[in-house]
Amino acid sequence: MATIGTPVYLKVGARSQIAKNNYTDLVDFVLQGVSGDPGFQVFFLAFFSIFYTMVVTGNTLIFMAISLNPSLHTLMYFFLANLALMDIACTSTVLPKLLKGLVGKGSHISYKGCLTQIFFISWFLGAELMLLTAMAYDRYVAICRPLHYSMLMSRPVCVLLAGTVWAISAINSSVNTGLLVRLHFCGHNQIRHFFCELPALLLLPCSPTTLNNIMTVLADVFIGVVNFLFTMISYSFIIASILRIHSAEGKRRASSTCSAHLMVVTFYYSAIIYTYVQPGSGSSMENGKVVSLLYTTVGPILNPLIYSLRNKDVKVALGKVFPCVC
To answer: CB under 8 Å to 320, separation ≥6 — which residues?
Structure first.
């Protein structure tokens, strides 16, 4: 068995082809982790264990409360239930492996495991960004076109929107992960991150990554920038509509409906766009660790609090389903 931190090699394909290319491909990679200081291991282990428990518990409670309470079977809560699932899946893709490394079970990850982690993290993050856009459109219709809400945001339309979000993000993730298969990793196997993330992995190949970089930027522009613009356009109409409301109470209620969503949108888009558009330098990758913690750990904790636990209807539903919670 190879020692952690030592490159491990695997011959791929016919021997003649290997001789021709004069390289072998890596079997596994070594994740650098959150910090190289062993003195912080116990702290980070406790920190991430608590955070992972909070993410899974909070979002599971929200999902079950929405699913089991008929009064919450509305379109807004349908999107929130999808968001809760995405948060659980996103965090579960990253933190269990990180915790395993922190308890000394090994910081290495197999080649296939690394690609699998990249596929799922890209899928769930992309789906979450597009879902936030769908939620912004839902708020736009509810505030700016309330008389047409039942027609424009019918249940079939919402199911179609949610399904499209999951499908498009899965296709995007499949393309970017598939393009990684064509690359050859034949030298340095240290990933300067605490999980396999596309920008960090693209620093390692010994074959050209031009096509991968182009597709990554295109995906980021489509899923990140374009969706962000659609969200901002929706909110420009929402704000204009709120300003036309004469009642102070009406303005307050309309603003409270959208302020939480706008805050989460800004948080997620700024973090993820920074990560995937940043130049691949050492300092930027160190900063990227902090940013990645925001959208893989902090965001999934805040979402239940921002969207649901402050909501009176959700509190009542939680009290009915789980009497000991509320």
So the answer is: 69
Rounded-to-integer distance, Cα 67 and Cα 124, Å: 21
Domain containing residue 85: CATH number: 1.20.1070.10
Q: Give the integer Cα–Cα distance in Å for 139 and 145.
A: 10
**Prediction pTM value:** 0.81
Q: Tokens in use for 204?
A: 């390692």
Give 119-129 pLDDT, tens digit per residue.
999 999 899 98
Question: Distances from the Cα of 220 to the Cαs of 125, 141, 199, 228, in angstroms?
Answer: 11, 27, 12, 11
Question: How far lies 286's CA from each of 11, 191, 196, 282, 321, in Å?
Answer: 32, 11, 14, 6, 43
Question: Does residue 188 sit within a domain?
Answer: no
Tokens for 163? 């399904």
- Evaluate whether residue 65 is within a structural domain: yes
Can you give the residue range of the structural domain that contains 160? 38-93+122-179+209-321
Residues 6 or more apart whose Cβ sits within 8 Å of residue 217: 276, 277
